Every structure is written in structure tokens, then in C-alpha cells.
Amino acid sequence: MAASMASKLFRAGARSTIRKVSLFSNGLLQKGPRRNYDRHRMRYLKEMYQKRLDAGPEKPRRRSEWINWNYDAEIYAFGQRLGEEFEESTLRQAFINRSYVEGEKKKRAELGIDIDAVPLQLDDNTEFANEGSVLMSSYLKVYLRNIYPYMFEEGISAAHDYLTTDEMLAHISKHIGCEDLILSEEFPTSSATLSTTFKAVVGALFSDKGRERAEQFVRDFVLPQLIETDINELWQIVNPMGLLKAVLVLSGKGEPEPRLLWKSGANTIMSLYWVGIYSDKDFIAKSPGETILIAEEMAAREAIKKIMKTEDSRAPLVLGAAAENLKLDYERVNVSAEDIIRKYYGSEDPQKNTSTSL
């Protein structure tokens, strides 16, 4: 009897111990990482992602349609963000597009409101845009002529046209925060509207703070677009050798003499020729090319770069604080390549090749 009772107690104690060990081990497993514990969550996310793809992209909405939009605060923040002190009324007008004014008049007419009795006190930014366009165009040419005094006027005009395209000004306008502030009937806003708005901002600054401050604004936001651009690539010269010949002869030097310096792989598809240009036995420039003609043309372009002092090793643009004391000659006009061509090839010397033109 005693043995039987002892056996029962032993088995009961063993079961209790095994149960405690099992609970303890399960607790340890629960504290550690469990494989596939979020499989239901992943299935849910995949389903929602597929629904997003089926629904398509969200329809573009104006920034003013969001509940946290405050136009007055954004107008104030625009000037502070750029470090400019605008008159609030002037800055507001700079963002009013003509289509917005016409749209408001049309809405009033549909509601039967007499426009003469209750005039719409809104002026669009056309006048500011015209003033800003004239100032910006004038200052860009003055700056480029003084920074590149030896560059031909055609190159200056090409750089100016590159900086004043609607696409370039729209790019600048969008990145300084104009897009959300424009009052216009069209949406999404076109490049032409963004460009006009940027010009109007320049005109508004000119109206409030004067020419010097507006020119500084143009220098800080428009001219830096040339930093990663090769200014020589903006002006396409049709006949560089003809221009080089005219420049050298009119400056009292000998005509350019192209010479083959060396070549490699002439009978293969990887042919390479190096051509150098000399004048009065003085080396001017050299360049490689796939053929002799290509190498000669590229060498002539390199020589023109040296004449204009716009080679790759040229000094960077003077911008920022370094340009504060920059003295610009507003009456300066660079030499025109067209005038040089006409002066040289328009002479009656029969030895000159009149068939070559720029």
C-alpha cells in the first residue's frame, strides 16, 4: 500500500514538473522571433497595393484644395524664403495670371452681377512680366559681356537665349515655389505661365526695391543655370575654320595651317587622328577626331575657344558674395563674328576664299 501511494505521488510530481518545463519553454519561444508571424499583414498589404495599381494614379489637385492651405501665410513665406522684402499687394499681383481675371469676370457674368456696378479689383501680372523680362534680358547680356569680354556677340546672344527660354524660367519658377501660388484657370500650370510668373516676380521686385536688387535676384537664380553647362556648346559655329582664318588674318597673324600630328588604327573602325593648327609656325590648338576632316574642325573650334578665352580651364562664373562689388560696363558690346566675316571675306582680294562663310 505504501509503495503504491509512493508511486502515485512520484508520477504526479513528474507530470507537474514536465508541465512547468513545457510552459517555461513555450514562454521562451514566444519571446524569441517567430517565422511568418506577419504573413496575414503581408497578404493585406499586397492586396491594398494591387488595388492601388488597379485604381491608377491619383488625379492631380491644386495645392489650395488641401485642408491645410493658407494662401496669406504662403505669400508671406515666399518672400522670406528668398530673402526679399516684397510689398504684399505687389507680390499678390505678380501671381495673378490674366486667365484668372477673365475667369472671375465670366463667373460674375453668369451670376448676373453687374461688373460696372461692382468692379473686380484685380490686376493681372502682365505689366510686371513685361518689366521683368526687359530688365532680365538686359542684365544677362551685360553680365555675360563683362564676364566673357573676348567672346563673340553671337555666343553671348546664344547663352542669353538659353537662359530665357520658357522651359528654363519655368524650371526656376517651379523650384522657388511659384507653382502653388499662381492664380490661373489652367491646371496643371504650363511652362509659359510659370515663365511669365517668374518674370512678373522680377518686375515686382524691381518695382518695390529698385533695379539693383532685381538684378541681384536675376544673378542669384538665373545665371547659376550656366554652372554645369558648356557655354561653347550653346553657340553652333557652321564653319569654324573660316572664322578662325578671318580672325587671325585681321589681327595681323598668318593664316591657320592644319597639320597631322599622329594617327592610330587608320585601317580599322577605331581610327584616330590628331590634327594641330599653326599660325606663323606657332602652335595654336590641337584636337582628335575619327577622320582628318573631323579632327581639323575640332582643332579649329579649340582655337576659337582660346581666342574667346572660354576653354575648359577658364575661371568659374563670379556669383554670390564675390559678385557684390562686381563693376559692370553697361555700355559694352562684344565684337561680332558676323562683322569679322564680312570685313574679311567682303574684301576684293582675289586670293581670299569667298566661298567660306560662317
What does this structure look like?
By secondary structure, the protein is mainly α. It has two domains: 163 residues, Ribonuclease iii, N-terminal Endonuclease Domain, Chain A; 90 residues, Double Stranded RNA Binding Domain (2-Layer Sandwich). The protein has 13 helices and three strands, in the order H-H-H-H-H-H-H-H-H-H-H-E-E-E-H-H. The chain has a three-stranded antiparallel beta sheet, with helices on one face. Helix 11 packs across helix 13. The radius of gyration is 36 Å and the shape is extended. The termini are far apart.
Q: Quick summary of this structure?
A:
It is found in: Mitochondrion. The chain is mainly alpha-helical and 358 residues long. It has two domains: 69-231, Ribonuclease III domain (Ribonuclease iii, N-terminal Endonuclease Domain, Chain A, Orthogonal Bundle), CATH 1.10.1520; 237-311 and 331-345, 2-Layer Sandwich (Double Stranded RNA Binding Domain).
